[in-house]
Amino acid sequence: METADEMRFLPPELATAAVAVQANLKEKRWHHTLCVCRQAAALAQLHGADERKAVTAALFHDFLKESSESQLLQIYADNAIIKRTHGGAENA
Question: Is there a contact between 59 and 33 (Cβ–Cβ < 8 Å)?
Answer without folding.
Answer: yes
